[in-house]
Amino acid sequence: MFTGIVQGVATIQEVSTAPGLNTYAIRLPAERLEGVTIGASVSINGACLTVTRQEGDCLYFDAMQETLRLTTLGKLNQGDRVNFERAARIGDEIGGHLLSGHVHTTATVTSIKRPENNVTIEFEVPEAWARYIFPKGYIAINGASLTIGEVTGNRFNVHLIPETLRATTFGDIQESDVVNIEIDSQTQTIVDTLDRLGYDRPAPNH
């Protein structure tokens, strides 16, 4: 499990491709490597990956075909920067909201506004996932736990403070960029349960 509090930005050092499999060498800050073991889980841009080996300050991860299909990991290249978070431990503070590291879908950046001291970014998700997105609800974008701002159709925005921009890759984001999305599990459960009970259907006309 993860908390959605990004622990820093890592750099892609190398990408090796094979049929149905990409292997990533990712350089993490040295102070974040203490206690890393083979088999440990690390969130890379919101996708839970398993450490397969370590060489110095580089960790190696394999991403299978299904992961590459559902996420943006297949588009990563040498030199790209990614958000990372090591798996939460019992007793850690949950500053964001609980995440599984299982990416549900991707979203496209449709606009970026930069008023003084903050940034508002608008995203568009596939129609099928819009039903789980509500104003002031939680969402994870590239592994970062964020609060949803306004929602219009299948578009929503988030408001980012300078510290979030500093500590994550959101300071580099551009229009038309594609990001990983993990829907809040509690919201998804509630919406799906109400749908099964018939409350998600239009009321009959009398």
TrEMBL record:
Catalytic activity reported: 2 6,7-dimethyl-8-(1-D-ribityl)lumazine + H(+) = 5-amino-6-(D-ribitylamino)uracil + riboflavin
PROSITE patterns: LUMAZINE_BIND
Transferase in keyword set: yes
GO biological process, alphabetically ordered: riboflavin biosynthetic process
Keyword DNA-binding assigned: no
Function description: Catalyzes the dismutation of two molecules of 6,7-dimethyl-8-ribityllumazine, resulting in the formation of riboflavin and 5-amino-6-(D-ribitylamino)uracil.
Protein name: Riboflavin synthase
Organism: Marinobacter lipolyticus SM19
